[in-house]
Amino acid sequence: MENNRSWKLLSSEQLLKDKWIDVKSEIWEKPDGTIIKPFYKYGFPDYATALAITKDGKVILEVGGTKPELQVDIWSGNHPFYTGSQKIIDTEGRVEKFEKKYDFNEKLGKKKKE
Questions:
Q1: Cβ atoms within 10 Å of 100's Cβ, excluding its own
Q2: In whole angstroms, what is the distance from residue 49 CA to residue 67 CA?
Q3: Together in a domain, 37 and 62
Q4: Where are the alpha helices (DSSP H) in 1-114?
Q5: For residue 12, which of 35, 31, 40 has the smallest C-alpha distance?
Q6: Do residue 71 and residue 97 come from a single domain?
Q7: Quick check: is 34 in a domain?
Q8: How far is CA 35 from CA 3, 11, 24, 25, in A?
């Protein structure tokens, strides 16, 4: 005599299905005869975890969504403002005027331009 110890699906009803989630209400019978009602089953059909990886292979961000790949050109690791390589181009002297007005060169320990 074979001992079948698996659960048996008695009924299943689709409650919600869209691109984000799949929800079913099911009724199951356990091997000992106990009925599990309701048994909710959730699925996330198109959900994927996307990783932001630098050119040298370092993982910098993990995000979940429906797109398996995200193309990111600028992030804090390569943006000039955050890396300290930002250069201010000013042909009309507005930056110098601002720095002079608020005395930024002295506060930052920079030598004044002559």
A1: 14
A2: 8
A3: no
A4: 80-83, 94-102, 104-107
A5: 40
A6: yes
A7: yes
A8: 19, 11, 17, 13
Distance CA 51, CA 58 (A): 10
Which structural domain, as residue segments, surrounds residue 70? 48-107
- DSSP, collapsed to helix, strand or coil, labels residue 7 as coil
Domain count, the chain: 2
- Considering the domain boundaries, does residue 2 fall inside one? no
Tokens of 41: 């089953």
pTM of the model: 0.39
Instruction: For residue range 24-50, list pLDDT tens digits in order.
Output: 999 999 999 999 888 888 887 777 777
Does some domain include residue 83? yes
Digit-coded pLDDT (tens) for 59-114: 777 777 776 666 767 666 677 777 777 777 777 778 778 877 877 666 666 555 55
